[in-house]
Amino acid sequence: MKQKKPRYSRVLIKLSGEALAGELGYGIDPDVVIEMAMQLKEIFDCGVQVAVVVGGGNIFRARTGIKSGGIERTTADYMGMLASVLNGLAMQDALEKIGVQTRVQTAITMNEIAEPYIRRRAVHHMENGRIVIFAAGTGNPYFTTDTAAALRAAEVGAQVVIKATNVAGVYDRDPKNDPEARLLPRLTFDQALRMSLRVMDETAFTLCKENRIPLLVLNVREQGNLLKAIFGETVGSTIEAGPE
Fold first, then answer.
1. Which domains does the chain have, with CATH numbers?
2. 206: buried, middle or exposed (CB in 10 Å: 19+, 13-18, 0-12)?
3. Residue 163's beta-bridge partner residues?
4. pTM for the full model?
5. 228 or 26: whose pLDDT is higher?
């Protein structure tokens, strides 16, 4: 590494549920969860305080449920929150098997399996060498886990939000539909909004912009990407607030 010290001392990683499904496309792939856990341990072992927000799209996607089954929106959103708890517990299990202490905090009270979300307690855990996994989104329907990630990052004082996905970064067009789509290594939140880039929803963008928390989007399936990002190497796409 070019730098001896990590660029960031406290980070929040938004881990999509789809990433945990791996090639299966649905459910939890144990091998992928272990792979993700190893990458988190790598940056944790560098002295970085780590918080993780997990999505639930590999188990249940609220919008899909609304369209396909006629499920009422609020109910579908709560189902998605519960799916994220399953992923959070899977990640906790994988991390603790490789020697990393963790705490799962949920925005919906589930005393038997996790702590309730308490900001001061979450910060205390990170300061005392534990990875904190935030599950169940914000605990409210109509808010995505992207918004939960931006909110928790602001609350715990994270210096960056890293969105760990299955794509290399942010493109000017959908690379799945357009082979000529161009990767954008650096842009502002305003530019992303003007271009209608669906990297995160507008609420998440606004929270990051107002709190001047940069968003880094990268492909977590490429081994070493998280570590490179922590040390400030160019990887994926960075979205920043821009000049005031």
1. 10-240 (3.40.1160.10)
2. middle
3. 14, 217
4. 0.92
5. 228
